[in-house]
Amino acid sequence: MNEIKNKWRELTTKKNEFLHILRILNHYYEMRGENRSERFIFRETLVRTDPGDIQIYFSKIGEYEYQVACAIPKTAKIESWIHIDGIAEERMKMREVGNLEHPVFSLVCLGDLFQIAVETENPVL
Length: 125
What we know:
This protein is of the alpha+beta class. Helix content is about 35%, strand content about 20%. The protein has a five-stranded antiparallel beta sheet with strand order 4-3-2-1-5, covered by helices on one side. Helix 1 (about 15-30) crosses helix 2. The radius of gyration is 15 Å and the shape is globular. The relative contact order is 0.21.
């Protein structure tokens, strides 16, 4: 893990899967009444933007923690946040108890997207 920790990767494929994760998180935050911040508004804008018009970057900062940075170049807007990958954490727990048929294994998580993202030297941040 240390060799990938703190290096930035750009998600160039499967952006719709990332946006799906973000839609779910946005819904959760909206239900909690946390929908007035600039970050929330940016994330709402992001999920409504064509995936080809956004840039998505990840840096692994812990076992299940990622720094996420996204840009919408046409609007010159950039935002970043910390994402805790609860799906990957739950998968690990299910493996430990031997339950490999649990539905959590059918979900795409941020860790999956990090693995397919392309290492980059200079993210647009």
